[in-house]
């Protein structure tokens, strides 16, 4: 099945009387926004296997998957959920990079340095309909600029931290709304957290 993180959150928080044991593991593809690790952890506890995917309309839908590595099976459940919240690796046929949007240099694979997620390939849009100005801006430098800010981990996996338009700047410090939401979701009194 497939469902956005908000759908997964509804399943996790459904009344106990509505929850029934699953006869087998159910595979769920999720995406649309970054799923909070807490929700992924709870879904796994209920008997679901999560596949996190990432993409945009302009690149023909899903372009990455958080492909699961066997060596991660021995990790604690909370660590597994944090890994599954990453967007992962790109599919064959599309190229993905995380670049400094000004210099167009790839960010290091250090899990800390943020850049913009960019794509190129045969499934990337040619242009926006009747909007050359938006097209030029989106495809500047020969890459489609997603507007998503991300890091790359040492294994190459991409993790979106925020949308460039959503980042909070406080006293010169950049604060990721995705990270704030993930922390809020961990509190038992919080049902859902999203930007206003």
Automatic annotation (TrEMBL):
The molecular function GO annotations come to: ligase activity
Family membership: Belongs to the ATP-dependent AMP-binding enzyme family.
* Entry coiled-coil feature ranges: none
Q: Which InterPro entries match?
A: AMP-bd_C_sf, AMP-dep_synth/lig_dom, ANL_N_sf
Q: Which SUPFAM superfamilies match?
A: Acetyl-CoA synthetase-like (SSF56801)
Question: GO biological process annotations for this chain's record?
Answer: fatty acid metabolic process
Q: Which intervals hold domain AMP-dependent synthetase/ligase?
A: 1-129
This protein's name: AMP-dependent synthetase/ligase domain-containing protein
Name the UniProt key words of this record, in alphabetical order: Fatty acid metabolism, Ligase, Lipid metabolism
Q: From which domain of life does this come?
A: Eukaryota
């Amino acid at each position: 099945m497939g469902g956005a993180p908000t759908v997964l959150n509804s399943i996790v928080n459904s009344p106990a009387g509505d929850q029934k044991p699953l006869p087998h593991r159910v595979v769920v593809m999720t995406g649309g926004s970054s799923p909070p690790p807490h929700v992924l952890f709870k879904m796994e506890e209920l008997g679901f296997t999560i596949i996190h995917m990432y993409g945009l309309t302009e690149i023909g839908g899903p372009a990455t998957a958080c492909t699961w590595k066997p060596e991660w099976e021995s990790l604690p459940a909370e660590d597994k959920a944090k890994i599954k919240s990453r967007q992962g690796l790109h599919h064959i046929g599309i190229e993905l990079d995380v670049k400094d949007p000004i210099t167009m240099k790839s960010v290091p694979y250090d899990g800390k340095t943020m850049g913009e997620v960019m794509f190129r390939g045969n499934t990337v849009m040619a242009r926006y309909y009747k909007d050359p100005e938006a097209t030029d801006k989106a495809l500047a430098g020969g890459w489609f600029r997603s507007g998503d800010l991300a890091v790359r981990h040492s294994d190459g996996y991409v993790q979106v931290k925020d949308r460039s338009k959503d980042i909070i700047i406080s006293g010169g410090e950049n604060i990721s709304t995705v990270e704030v939401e993930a922390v809020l979701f961990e509190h038992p009194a919080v049902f859902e957290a999203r930007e206003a």
